[in-house]
Design brief:
By secondary structure, the protein is of the alpha/beta class. It has a domain of 98 residues: NAD(P)-binding Rossmann-like Domain (Rossmann fold, 3-Layer(aba) Sandwich), CATH 3.40.50.720. The protein is 35% helix and 24% strand. The protein contains 14 helices and 19 strands. It has a 7-stranded mixed beta sheet, with helices on both faces. Helix 2 crosses helix 3 and helix 5 packs parallel to helix 6. The longest helix has 27 residues. The protein is globular and about 70 Å long. The model has no long low-confidence stretch (mean pLDDT 93). The structure holds zinc ion (ZN). The site of zinc ion (ZN) has 8 residues, from loops.
Length: 412
């Protein structure tokens, strides 16, 4: 089964859902292909955002099977020094907040290469990772961070309890938006957690996506667009509560929540009610907010399309810059294909030499700018526009120009 559609809210099970944003169907956003796979047509799946009238949660209901999305996952967090720093701070915040002692067990769900757990291990705690990507889990274990290769669920949580005992802290970063069956995960978390322990997770924050027009972070890996209000009701159903919420800087703006069993002892921090008022103020609990968001995106897409058409008809050559997953959503939704951009520059050696998902535009290293001398570079990784422009001054000096598509269309 490659793909299925659910018809109830992932957080509250309500069937009263309304479609607020229809994006163009795309293949999985990270499904880059090699040269010898170019003849195989890649399937496109619906990409539609639904608002729950029961709990205001925003979500995709069309689910691409996780083994298609995640088993060959190439993202490795330790490769980015910004993330390593983020995780160091993260770990020390949790160590203080959870009042850990030296026998404490820290379990990380979706532990990737073990970067976060290494910070806990270095501080003297017992650690255990769980990750569905076989290769990454194996490498993490080899590097000293024991990692179980699995999708986390109730059954795995029981196995962990048998072998390691209950956890003092469970973390889950950027996985809580990736899992269709959250009930499985949360009942596993509940049973694995000691009574006074905490569960901490980070997810991309809906308010950041909305305020910064980050619509292109909508792709099949991200099933949920979280805010505090719907999550509060969700945890309540499982006898848990959010006791603290924070905004953090990762992935264009994230939400970090601290959760405990309702029987545990920590007081609920004032940040929780502050988040709820802030979300109400921005009308995240109103479906019309997202209908206007959809209209705004459509207008921005039209502006970009007409610019590209003008440039092409005057014979200009355009290439793309940056091939993150979000570029797949942006290119499909704005109708950008190989007729608009002849290649895409990306600094990641893993992607160079491959072809973009579905559209099969070649991904090349930065040296291709010098070689092919495009007139314009369309920045697809537009949230990093400043650093891309400053790193590629030579292109500007040689007479080239950058097109930044969002949040406002701009030519530099
Ligand atoms: Zn709901």
């Amino acid at each position: 089964m490659a793909f299925y559609h659910r018809d109830s809210c992932r957080l509250c099970s309500s069937a009263n859902l309304v479609k607020v944003l229809s994006l163009a169907s795309t293949p999985p956003a990270n499904a880059f292909v090699s040269k010898n796979e170019l003849d195989e047509k890649q399937d496109c799946f619906p990409l539609e955002l639904w608002f729950c009238r029961g709990c205001s949660h925003l979500q995709l209901l069309d689910i691409v099977a996780p083994d298609i999305l995640f088993s060959d996952y190439v993202y490795v967090s330790g490769t980015s020094s910004v993330f390593v720093k983020h995780f160091e701070n993260y770990a020390s915040t949790i160590i203080n907040y959870a009042e850990l002692d030296k026998d404490s067990l820290v379990v990380d769900i979706g532990s990737n290469d073990g970067t976060l757990l290494r910070c806990f291990k270095d501080a003297g705690f017992r650690v255990l990772g769980i990750d569905p990507a076989a290769k990454i889990a194996e490498q993490a274990t080899k590097s000293g961070i024991e990692t179980i290769h699995a999708f986390f669920n109730k059954e795995i949580s029981e196995e962990i309890k048998m072998s390691f005992g209950q956890a003092d802290v469970i973390t889950a970063n950027n996985v809580f938006a990736h899992i269709d069956n959250l009930e499985e995960v949360i009942s596993g978390v509940y049973s694995l957690l000691k009574n006074d322990a905490i569960f901490v997770f980070e997810v991309s924050y809906l308010l950041d996506m909305y305020e910064k027009t980050l619509f292109d972070m909508i792709y099949h890996e991200h099933l949920d667009y979280h805010s505090v209000q719907p999550l509060m009701q969700f945890f309540k159903r499982y006898n848990m509560e959010i006791i603290k919420a924070e905004r953090v800087n990762t992935h264009g703006g994230s939400l970090r929540c601290y959760v405990q069993k309702t029987t545990a002892k920590k007081n609920v921090d004032s940040s929780v009610s502050e988040f709820i008022s802030m979300e109400r103020k921005h009308k995240l609990d109103d479906e019309n907010t997202f209908i206007s968001f959809a209209r705004e995106i459509k207008e921005k897409g039209q502006a970009l399309r007409s610019l590209l058409s003008d440039l092409k008809s005057s014979g200009k050559r355009i290439a793309g810059f940056g091939a993150p997953a979000k570029a797949t959503t942006l290119m499909y939704h704005f109708g950008i294909d190989e007729n608009d951009i002849s290649f895409i520059i990306d600094d990641s050696p893993i992607k160079q030499g491959l072809y973009s998902p579905g559209l099969h535009i070649p991904v090349l290293p930065a040296s291709a700018i010098e070689e092919f001398k495009p007139d314009y570079l369309l920045i697809l990784a537009w949230n990093f526009a400043d650093s891309i422009v400053s790193k590629n001054k030579q292109f500007l000096n040689d007479g080239g120009q950058f097109i930044i598509p969002l949040p406002e269309l701009k030519i530099i």
